[in-house]
Design goal:
The protein is an alpha+beta fold. The chain has helices spanning 3-13, 42-62, 101-119; strands spanning 17-24, 29-34, 70-75, 78-84, 89-95. It has three helices and five strands, in the order αββαβββα. α1 (3-13) packs antiparallel against α3. Strands 2-1-5-4-3 form a five-stranded antiparallel sheet, sandwiched between helices. The chain has a single domain (3-119), classed as Beta-Lactamase (2-Layer Sandwich), CATH 3.30.450. β3 (70-75) and β4 form a beta hairpin.
Length: 120
């Protein structure tokens, strides 16, 4: 499957998923799928969160905690769940307040390998 198909599948599989995005840690969007426009700029939100993700990566490395696999942030209007891929890329899902976070985590894990294969 292509990036487009994988990201669309994530949104279809996860109830309450508004968008899924494939990005790198420099904040550049590789591809994104919008399942539902909710009046929030998901790209700006994720670009801003990449700084926090970089800090979390450094913190786990400094503490010899191994690799960071997942990163999530919950806020009034929803939750962002991100899963690291190879070569400083990650896939993220933007979920609404009633979105199923556990299902989102599972779906990101399930689609990680095909996305990695498409990246390289």
């Amino acid at each position: 499957m292509s990036f487009r198909e994988e990201l669309a599948q994530i949104c279809e599989e996860v109830p309450g998923c508004w968008a899924s995005v494939l990005m790198n840690l420099d904040g550049m969007v590789v591809h994104r799928h919008i399942a539902q426009d909710v009046g929030m700029d998901d790209e700006v939100l994720l670009v801003e969160l990449t700084g926090s993700m970089k800090q979390a990566l450094q913190a786990t490395a400094s503490a010899e905690g191994g690799e960071l696999w997942e990163f999530s942030v919950s806020f009034d209007r929803g939750t962002v769940v991100a899963r690291m891929l190879e070569d400083e890329h990650f896939v993220a899902a933007l979920l609404g307040p009633k979105g199923l976070v556990g299902k989102g985590r599972y779906s990101l894990r399930l689609h990680s390998l095909p996305l990695i294969q498409d990246l390289f």
